[in-house]
Design a protein that fits this description.
alpha/beta, globular, 2 domains, Plasma alpha-L-fucosidase, 4-stranded antiparallel beta sheet, TIM Barrel
């Protein structure tokens, strides 16, 4: 018989636990002191589990990493140079991947159904990654800057952004508004909260490189490109998660992050429900924002005083799809359940990433992991969703036992990931009172 991948032991306890407070309407000033005082909308702490989707031009070469362009053009890593030499003609540029990002198999309804089957409660799509325009030669730079307002073909966006004219999924490649289609399907076919990832900077954008060469004393790039895009996606698609990334080592003052967030919390169409992360400029990560990410694949293994998220990948080495991935490169369902349980027990949310192909298909390996997670949650979700951390996150006697708690119902869940070889489970942390503590049920899922 196959070993179970997670079991939930339910106990009723008698001691009280404080309930989280709900936010009152307030006006927020464009300062971190004021913005950080905004209570996190309660829905985010309740949902616990979301799906990250990294999709973009990097899905065309689908080799090595979603940082393909950087490793190929900037760092000139040998495997990437050889890959291009072998598979593409001389003179092939990154922009030439644009028309090859075809998305002919992209079916937003199908994606929504697959995401729903995972048991996840929210989804975050990359609306724009770090991919800027070509690294324009210095001699061409001045004329490019002067014509920028008329020819804005820079960071590739998955929506028809007027700030990325002729370099977006509506004008190039799919000729479709990917963000709009997925948002509509998610909202019409599921109860998932819809969110968007957005990179502040772009690796090779001439405006950003110009500002960087001036130690970010000028702000041409955020004024002309990054900030207008943020306002555009919020007003057009009303995401409930705004996942910022990629500060380019520029301070939050360069990005005017506090000004934008004040608008987001006070005036935007999602001001009451939107949640944001902590990547709003150099020095803000794990310090400012709605919830903390601290680093990619962050899993501290202990309780934090602030709400946090473990954003991680099923593929151990890449966020985007890789054609050269081995089976051993993918986390097993047992490993993924372990990540989920540990994260939730310590007060975090798990944001688990998949990478579709350039033609819009979710690879079978990702579909399998999503479905497996959904099956596990269909049995054990009671111990995950709408829980809070208990006074002990894991057991002091038996390794691999993690606790979650529902204070309103006064229920403690003990989740153990391996069946005890002795056939007896010994718990050192719960302090029950005879005839007043009840063991109600044991639930598990055998793959």
């Amino acid at each position: 018989m196959a070993s179970p991948i997670g079991l939930s032991l339910i106990l009723w306890l008698l001691h009280p636990w404080p309930l989280p407070q709900r936010a009152d309407a307030a006006h927020y000033e464009p300062t971190w002191e004021s913005l950080d005082s905004r209570p996190l909308p309660t829905w985010f702490d309740e949902v616990k589990f979301g799906i990250f989707i990294h999709w973009g031009l990097f899905s065309v070469p689908s080799f090595g990493s979603e940082w393909f362009w950087w490793y190929w053009q900037k760092e000139k890593r040998e495997p990437y140079l050889k890959f291009m030499e072998k598979n593409y003609p001389p003179g092939f540029s990154y922009e030439d991947f644009g028309p090859l990002f075809t998305a002919e198999f992209f079916d937003a309804d199908q994606w929504a159904d697959i995401l729903k089957s995972s048991g996840a409660k929210y989804v975050v799509l990359t609306s724009k990654h770090h991919e800027g325009n070509l690294n324009i030669l210095h001699s061409e730079f001045s004329s490019f800057i002067s014509s920028f307002q008329q020819k804005q073909s820079l960071g590739f966006t998955l929506w028809g952004s007027k700030y990325s004219w002729s370099w977006n999924a509506v004008d190039v490649g799919p000729k479709r508004d990917i963000v709009a289609e997925l948002a509509s399907s998610i909202r019409n076919r599921t109860r998932l909260h819809f969110g968007l990832y957005h990179s502040l900077f772009e690796w090779f954008n001439p405006l950003f490189l110009s500002d960087a060469s001036r130690a970010f004393k000028t702000k041409e790039f955020p004024t002309a490109k990054s900030l207008p895009e943020l306002y555009e996606i919020v007003t057009s698609y009303q995401p409930e998660v705004l996942w910022s990334d990629g500060d380019g080592n520029a301070p939050e003052t360069y990005w005017n992050s506090t000004g934008f967030l004040a608008w987001l919390y006070n005036e935007s169409p999602v001001r009451d429900t939107v949640v944001t992360n902590d990547r709003w400029g150099a020095g803000t990560i794990c310090k400012h924002g709605g919830y903390y990410t601290c680093s990619d694949r962050y899993n501290p293994g202990h309780l934090l005083p602030h709400k946090w998220e473990n954003c991680m990948t099923i593929d151990k080495y890449s966020w985007g799809f890789r054609r050269n991935a081995e089976l051993s490169d993918y986390l097993t369902i047992e490993e993924l359940v372990k990540q989920l349980v540990e994260t939730v027990s310590c007060g975090g949310n798990l944001l688990m990433n998949i990478g579709p192909t350039h033609d819009g298909y979710i690879p079978v390996i990702f579909q399998e992991r999503l479905t497996q997670m959904g099956k596990w949650l269909s049995v054990n979700g009671e111990a995950i969703f709408s829980t809070i951390p208990w006074r002990a996150q894991n057991d002091s006697v038996t390794p691999g036992v993690w606790y979650t708690f529902k204070p309103k119902e006064n229920i403690l869940y003990a989740i153990f990931l391996n069946w005890p070889s002795s056939e007896f489970l010994v718990l050192g942390e719960p302090k029950g009172i005879a005839e007043m503590t009840e063991l109600q049920s044991l639930s598990f899922l055998v793959p």
